[in-house]
Request: fold
Amino acid sequence: MHRLLAALVFLAPMGCAATAAEAGRTAADTTWPTPPQIADPEAEPPSVDEMLRHLESLPPRQRAVLTEAMGTLVVNCPYTRASLQLPLVMHAVISRIDTSHIDPDARDAWRELQRGLEVHVALLDTIGVDLRSPTPGDHLHGAADPGAMVDRTTLAASADPIGTTMRLIEQNNALVDALDEETKDLIRGLNDTAYARMGQTTMFHQTDRWHQALRRIAPSVTDVEAKGQVDAMLEALSAHDEHGC
Reply:
């Protein structure tokens, strides 16, 4: 009997400690660092480096929640899908243009743009943006031009990723006009989920920095074919800026 009581006394603190540890893990997984843009709304929008550090600091469960929200948004909101697709396309296009096709005075700016886009792509990887193809039940499954709804693998292999993206952008208004109230509520809820954990959903400010940088560098592109690619990219970015969801 004494041995049993001693064993119970010995085990009780261990049980409490395990419960406390589990509670600590649960609390850590249901809270998360405040996104920079929410922490200081008056500050300059965060850089992609700051955003990447923040996203990497999210507890695994919260990152999974964010990934799920973004994955559902890209098959229901055309604007969000195009917003996340454009940096991927910019990265692919910019990576294919040799620095020798840029005037020497603009090459540092070109390399800075390339590096920024690399981080932006890493950021999208961190939250699992794969641009999955819409399936029945997703709003974008009813697109008039379903061939524009490509996943990342197909986009990366495309001979004309800018043209494919323009096809998506050109459908934006018609697809937004066709949204029913249930899907609008779904999109609003998903945006709230993403905003609470990331501070934004479309990363508009970060993409706009690349847009403005590319606009400044464009006159310094000396190769005709490369200049055509840059001009087409600028056209897609400008067209996207005119839309919303």
Q: What stands out?
A: The two ends are 71 Å apart (CA to CA).
